[in-house]
Amino acid sequence: MSGDSPPSWRRPQWAHLAPLAALAALTAVWQSVPAWTGLDVTVLPPPSQVISAGWADRTAIAEATGATLQITLLGLLLSVGLAVVLAGALSFLRPLRQTMLPLLIGAQSVPVIVLAPLFIIWFGFGPEPKILLVAVVSMLPLTLATLQGLLSADDEAATLLRSMGASGWQVFLRLRVFSALPFFFTGLRIVASFVVVSAIFSEYVGAKTGLGIYMQLQKNLFRTDLVFAAVLVTIVIGLALFATTYLLEALTMPWERRRKAARR
Q1: Residue of 1, 31, 167, 249 with fewest CB within 10 Å of its CB?
Q2: What letter does residue 3 receive in the DSSP assignment?
Q3: Dist CA 252 CA 214 (whole Å)
Q4: pLDDT above 70 (res 264)
Protein backbone atom coordinates (compact mmCIF):
# COMPACT_ATOMS: atom_id res chain seq x y z
CA MET A 1 0.00 0.00 0.00
CA SER A 2 3.02 2.24 -0.21
CA GLY A 3 1.73 3.72 -3.47
CA ASP A 4 -1.47 4.99 -1.86
CA SER A 5 -1.78 8.62 -0.89
CA PRO A 6 -1.26 9.24 2.83
CA PRO A 7 -4.35 9.45 5.03
CA SER A 8 -5.76 12.90 5.55
CA TRP A 9 -4.91 12.81 9.26
CA ARG A 10 -1.23 12.68 8.38
CA ARG A 11 -1.41 15.89 6.41
CA PRO A 12 -0.84 19.04 8.47
CA GLN A 13 -4.01 21.07 8.60
CA TRP A 14 -1.93 24.24 8.48
CA ALA A 15 -0.17 23.29 5.23
CA HIS A 16 -2.28 25.74 3.22
CA LEU A 17 -0.96 28.57 5.43
CA ALA A 18 2.65 28.00 4.30
CA PRO A 19 2.44 30.48 1.36
CA LEU A 20 1.03 33.15 3.67
CA ALA A 21 3.80 32.53 6.18
CA ALA A 22 6.43 32.78 3.45
CA LEU A 23 4.84 36.02 2.19
CA ALA A 24 4.84 37.48 5.70
CA ALA A 25 8.51 36.57 6.18
CA LEU A 26 9.45 38.08 2.82
CA THR A 27 7.54 41.27 3.63
CA ALA A 28 9.28 41.55 7.00
CA VAL A 29 12.70 41.18 5.39
CA TRP A 30 11.80 43.70 2.70
CA GLN A 31 10.60 46.17 5.33
CA SER A 32 13.86 45.81 7.25
CA VAL A 33 16.37 45.96 4.38
CA PRO A 34 16.43 49.79 3.96
CA ALA A 35 16.93 50.27 7.70
CA TRP A 36 19.62 47.57 7.95
CA THR A 37 21.60 48.60 4.88
CA GLY A 38 21.00 52.33 4.84
CA LEU A 39 19.67 51.98 1.28
CA ASP A 40 17.83 55.05 0.03
CA VAL A 41 14.07 54.50 0.04
CA THR A 42 13.90 55.91 -3.48
CA VAL A 43 15.89 52.87 -4.57
CA LEU A 44 14.03 50.24 -2.51
CA PRO A 45 11.00 51.65 -0.70
CA PRO A 46 9.69 49.50 2.18
CA PRO A 47 6.27 47.84 1.81
CA SER A 48 4.69 50.30 4.26
CA GLN A 49 5.68 53.23 2.03
CA VAL A 50 4.57 51.38 -1.12
CA ILE A 51 1.12 50.71 0.33
CA SER A 52 0.66 54.22 1.72
CA ALA A 53 1.81 55.85 -1.55
CA GLY A 54 -0.39 53.55 -3.59
CA TRP A 55 -3.40 54.31 -1.41
CA ALA A 56 -2.78 58.05 -1.72
CA ASP A 57 -2.71 57.71 -5.53
CA ARG A 58 -5.46 55.08 -5.65
CA THR A 59 -7.63 57.01 -8.10
CA ALA A 60 -4.94 57.11 -10.79
CA ILE A 61 -3.98 53.49 -10.09
CA ALA A 62 -7.62 52.36 -10.32
CA GLU A 63 -8.03 54.11 -13.66
CA ALA A 64 -4.85 52.53 -15.01
CA THR A 65 -5.86 49.12 -13.64
CA GLY A 66 -9.25 49.32 -15.34
CA ALA A 67 -7.65 50.01 -18.73
CA THR A 68 -5.15 47.17 -18.37
CA LEU A 69 -7.77 44.77 -17.04
CA GLN A 70 -10.01 45.46 -20.03
CA ILE A 71 -7.25 44.59 -22.49
CA THR A 72 -6.27 41.55 -20.43
CA LEU A 73 -9.75 40.03 -20.17
CA LEU A 74 -10.79 40.74 -23.76
CA GLY A 75 -7.50 39.40 -25.07
CA LEU A 76 -7.79 36.31 -22.89
CA LEU A 77 -11.36 35.61 -24.00
CA LEU A 78 -10.38 36.01 -27.64
CA SER A 79 -7.40 33.71 -27.19
CA VAL A 80 -9.60 31.02 -25.61
CA GLY A 81 -12.01 31.13 -28.53
CA LEU A 82 -9.25 31.03 -31.14
CA ALA A 83 -7.36 28.27 -29.32
CA VAL A 84 -10.40 26.02 -28.98
CA VAL A 85 -11.39 26.43 -32.64
CA LEU A 86 -7.84 25.95 -33.91
CA ALA A 87 -7.11 22.96 -31.67
CA GLY A 88 -10.39 21.33 -32.73
CA ALA A 89 -9.61 21.83 -36.41
CA LEU A 90 -6.08 20.46 -36.01
CA SER A 91 -7.35 17.40 -34.16
CA PHE A 92 -9.79 16.60 -36.97
CA LEU A 93 -7.51 17.25 -39.95
CA ARG A 94 -4.23 15.38 -39.81
CA PRO A 95 -2.70 17.09 -42.92
CA LEU A 96 -3.51 20.49 -41.45
CA ARG A 97 -1.99 19.42 -38.13
CA GLN A 98 1.19 18.20 -39.77
CA THR A 99 1.46 21.50 -41.64
CA MET A 100 0.50 23.96 -38.93
CA LEU A 101 1.89 22.40 -35.76
CA PRO A 102 5.58 23.14 -36.54
CA LEU A 103 4.61 26.69 -37.48
CA LEU A 104 2.73 27.18 -34.20
CA ILE A 105 5.66 25.85 -32.20
CA GLY A 106 8.04 28.12 -34.09
CA ALA A 107 5.72 31.12 -33.62
CA GLN A 108 6.12 30.84 -29.85
CA SER A 109 9.75 31.86 -30.31
CA VAL A 110 8.84 35.20 -31.90
CA PRO A 111 9.50 37.94 -29.30
CA VAL A 112 6.56 40.10 -28.29
CA ILE A 113 8.80 43.13 -28.74
CA VAL A 114 8.82 42.36 -32.47
CA LEU A 115 5.07 41.82 -32.79
CA ALA A 116 3.94 44.87 -30.84
CA PRO A 117 5.20 47.60 -33.22
CA LEU A 118 3.92 45.63 -36.22
CA PHE A 119 0.44 45.37 -34.73
CA ILE A 120 0.40 49.14 -34.18
CA ILE A 121 1.41 49.73 -37.80
CA TRP A 122 -1.19 47.28 -39.12
CA PHE A 123 -4.14 48.07 -36.84
CA GLY A 124 -3.55 51.59 -35.52
CA PHE A 125 -3.41 53.02 -32.01
CA GLY A 126 -6.80 51.94 -30.64
CA PRO A 127 -7.41 49.10 -28.18
CA GLU A 128 -7.82 46.54 -30.98
CA PRO A 129 -4.11 45.90 -31.66
CA LYS A 130 -3.40 45.52 -27.94
CA ILE A 131 -6.25 43.05 -27.47
CA LEU A 132 -5.15 41.14 -30.56
CA LEU A 133 -1.54 41.06 -29.37
CA VAL A 134 -2.56 39.63 -26.00
CA ALA A 135 -4.76 37.07 -27.76
CA VAL A 136 -2.02 35.93 -30.14
CA VAL A 137 0.58 35.60 -27.39
CA SER A 138 -1.84 33.69 -25.16
CA MET A 139 -3.36 31.55 -27.90
CA LEU A 140 -0.25 29.56 -28.81
CA PRO A 141 0.40 27.67 -25.54
CA LEU A 142 -3.34 27.23 -24.97
CA THR A 143 -3.79 25.75 -28.45
CA LEU A 144 -0.97 23.26 -27.96
CA ALA A 145 -2.26 22.18 -24.55
CA THR A 146 -5.82 21.74 -25.82
CA LEU A 147 -4.66 19.88 -28.91
CA GLN A 148 -2.62 17.48 -26.78
CA GLY A 149 -5.71 16.80 -24.70
CA LEU A 150 -7.88 16.17 -27.75
CA LEU A 151 -5.34 13.73 -29.17
CA SER A 152 -4.91 11.94 -25.82
CA ALA A 153 -8.38 10.41 -25.87
CA ASP A 154 -8.48 6.63 -25.44
CA ASP A 155 -8.38 5.04 -28.90
CA GLU A 156 -10.21 1.94 -27.65
CA ALA A 157 -13.04 4.09 -26.30
CA ALA A 158 -13.21 5.91 -29.65
CA THR A 159 -13.36 2.59 -31.49
CA LEU A 160 -16.14 1.40 -29.18
CA LEU A 161 -18.19 4.54 -29.83
CA ARG A 162 -17.76 4.15 -33.57
CA SER A 163 -18.83 0.51 -33.37
CA MET A 164 -22.02 1.72 -31.71
CA GLY A 165 -22.72 4.02 -34.66
CA ALA A 166 -21.24 7.27 -33.37
CA SER A 167 -20.03 9.71 -35.98
CA GLY A 168 -16.66 11.42 -35.85
CA TRP A 169 -18.33 14.57 -34.54
CA GLN A 170 -20.09 12.60 -31.78
CA VAL A 171 -16.81 10.96 -30.78
CA PHE A 172 -15.28 14.42 -30.61
CA LEU A 173 -18.01 15.85 -28.40
CA ARG A 174 -18.56 12.85 -26.11
CA LEU A 175 -14.99 11.66 -25.71
CA ARG A 176 -12.27 13.96 -26.98
CA VAL A 177 -13.66 17.17 -25.47
CA PHE A 178 -13.86 15.62 -22.00
CA SER A 179 -10.36 14.16 -22.39
CA ALA A 180 -9.06 17.62 -23.33
CA LEU A 181 -10.59 19.54 -20.41
CA PRO A 182 -7.77 18.88 -17.88
CA PHE A 183 -5.18 19.82 -20.50
CA PHE A 184 -7.15 22.93 -21.43
CA PHE A 185 -7.29 24.18 -17.85
CA THR A 186 -3.60 23.46 -17.36
CA GLY A 187 -2.85 25.57 -20.41
CA LEU A 188 -5.24 28.25 -19.21
CA ARG A 189 -3.42 28.43 -15.88
CA ILE A 190 -0.12 28.86 -17.68
CA VAL A 191 -1.60 31.63 -19.81
CA ALA A 192 -3.23 33.33 -16.80
CA SER A 193 0.16 33.63 -15.13
CA PHE A 194 1.58 35.91 -17.84
CA VAL A 195 -1.35 37.37 -19.78
CA VAL A 196 -1.44 40.57 -17.71
CA VAL A 197 2.28 41.07 -18.42
CA SER A 198 1.54 40.83 -22.15
CA ALA A 199 -1.21 43.43 -21.75
CA ILE A 200 1.11 45.78 -19.89
CA PHE A 201 3.81 45.39 -22.51
CA SER A 202 1.33 46.12 -25.30
CA GLU A 203 0.62 49.49 -23.66
CA TYR A 204 4.17 50.67 -24.21
CA VAL A 205 3.55 50.94 -27.95
CA GLY A 206 0.58 53.22 -28.25
CA ALA A 207 -1.65 53.35 -25.15
CA LYS A 208 -2.68 56.51 -23.34
CA THR A 209 -3.51 54.86 -20.04
CA GLY A 210 -2.88 51.58 -18.25
CA LEU A 211 -0.56 50.12 -15.65
CA GLY A 212 2.33 50.01 -18.13
CA ILE A 213 1.96 53.71 -18.92
CA TYR A 214 1.50 54.49 -15.22
CA MET A 215 4.69 52.65 -14.25
CA GLN A 216 6.63 54.33 -17.02
CA LEU A 217 5.45 57.76 -15.88
CA GLN A 218 6.28 57.12 -12.22
CA LYS A 219 9.68 55.74 -13.18
CA ASN A 220 10.44 58.98 -15.03
CA LEU A 221 9.38 60.90 -11.91
CA PHE A 222 11.62 58.69 -9.71
CA ARG A 223 8.56 57.54 -7.74
CA THR A 224 9.80 54.04 -7.12
CA ASP A 225 7.18 53.49 -4.43
CA LEU A 226 4.37 54.02 -6.94
CA VAL A 227 6.10 51.74 -9.44
CA PHE A 228 6.12 49.02 -6.79
CA ALA A 229 2.47 49.77 -5.97
CA ALA A 230 1.54 49.18 -9.62
CA VAL A 231 3.60 45.99 -9.64
CA LEU A 232 1.68 44.73 -6.59
CA VAL A 233 -1.60 45.42 -8.39
CA THR A 234 -0.28 43.43 -11.36
CA ILE A 235 0.57 40.52 -9.08
CA VAL A 236 -2.90 40.59 -7.53
CA ILE A 237 -4.51 40.51 -10.97
CA GLY A 238 -2.34 37.56 -11.99
CA LEU A 239 -3.18 35.63 -8.83
CA ALA A 240 -6.89 36.38 -9.23
CA LEU A 241 -6.88 35.11 -12.81
CA PHE A 242 -4.94 32.02 -11.75
CA ALA A 243 -7.41 31.29 -8.94
CA THR A 244 -10.33 31.83 -11.30
CA THR A 245 -9.12 28.98 -13.50
CA TYR A 246 -9.57 26.59 -10.56
CA LEU A 247 -13.09 27.89 -10.00
CA LEU A 248 -13.96 27.43 -13.67
CA GLU A 249 -12.45 23.94 -13.59
CA ALA A 250 -14.55 22.99 -10.57
CA LEU A 251 -17.71 24.27 -12.25
CA THR A 252 -16.92 22.62 -15.58
CA MET A 253 -15.60 19.31 -14.22
CA PRO A 254 -17.53 18.56 -10.99
CA TRP A 255 -16.81 14.84 -11.37
CA GLU A 256 -13.09 15.53 -11.02
CA ARG A 257 -13.66 17.30 -7.71
CA ARG A 258 -15.70 14.36 -6.42
CA ARG A 259 -13.01 11.92 -7.57
CA LYS A 260 -10.32 13.82 -5.69
CA ALA A 261 -12.50 14.06 -2.60
CA ALA A 262 -13.06 10.29 -2.68
CA ARG A 263 -9.30 9.66 -2.74
CA ARG A 264 -8.69 11.68 0.42
Answers
A1: 1
A2: T
A3: 37
A4: no
